[in-house]
Amino acid sequence: MRMIHTRSIQTPIGEMYAGATENGICMLEYDDPTRIKKHKSAFSDNYELREADPSNELLTQLEKELEAYFKMESKTFDVALDLIGTDFQQKVWTELLNIPFGVTRSYLDQSKSVGDVNAIRAVANANGQNRISIVVPCHRVIGSNGSLTGYGGKLWRKKFLLELESNQGSLF
């Protein structure tokens, strides 16, 4: 059975729960017991979770990169990722990685980027299943009318992240 090493990471928008396989970061979730339990359940058939592993190098790298992101010292993440999901979810998540820092995209645009303009709901659902918040930037996807729409980490965090990346203060 494969191992997922986990640790809590403090951020300016709350504690986050991170997980890493030998291949990369597979989870970065806000301190929401329901979402964390759902992610753990999705992993439980194929992975053993090793809680609070302070020595995992990928988790240490993630923590440093998050700190640099929140201090506006870095706009990118270099830590390896392990996108564990269906083929469609992985395709959507990979497209999320192509949205540049400080840029937003509508769900329609995101659907077009995965090659199916009619897949807006499926894309939105896959965004909602993203297990690696911030690093896989689902927060950069907004409504076609420019409004903030659903975000598993709560809309106030989405607003915070978009304003941080815009470096313009209050946008919404």
CATH topology of the largest domain: Arc Repressor Mutant, subunit A
**Biggest sheet layout:** 4 strands, mixed
Q: What's the end-to-end separation, in Å?
A: 45 Å
Assembly state of the chains shown: single chain
Helix content: 25-40%
Provide a count of the helices: 6
Q: Which homologous superfamily in CATH is the superfamily of the largest domain? A: Winged helix-like DNA-binding domain superfamily/Winged helix DNA-binding domain
Structural class: alpha/beta
Using the alpha-carbon principal axes, give the shape.
globular
Rg from Cα: 15 Å
Compute the number of strand runs.
Answer: 6
Highest CATH level, the class of the largest domain: Mainly Alpha
Residue-averaged pLDDT: 90
State the low-pLDDT regions, or none: none
Strand content: 15-25%
The SSE order reads EEEHEHHEHHEH
Spatial order of the strands forming the largest sheet: 3-2-1-4
CATH-level-2 architecture of the largest domain: Orthogonal Bundle
Q: How many domains in all?
A: 2
Short key terms for the protein model shown above:
Arc Repressor Mutant, subunit A, 2 domains, 37% helix, Double Stranded RNA Binding Domain, globular, 172 residues
Q: Can you describe this structure?
A:
This protein has 172 residues and is α/β, with parallel strands linked by helices. It folds into two domains: 2-70, Methylated DNA-protein cysteine methyltransferase domain (Double Stranded RNA Binding Domain), CATH 3.30.160.70; 87-166, Winged helix-like DNA-binding domain superfamily/Winged helix DNA-binding domain (Arc Repressor Mutant, subunit A, Orthogonal Bundle). It is built from six helices and six strands, in the order βββαβααβααβα. The protein has helices spanning 33-43, 57-70, 87-96, 107-113, 120-128, 155-166; strands at 2-11, 14-20, 25-30, 47-50, 105-106, 141-142. Strand 1 (2-11) and strand 2 form a beta hairpin. Helix 4 crosses helix 5 (120-128). The protein is globular. The chain starts with a strand and ends in a 6-residue tail after the last helix.
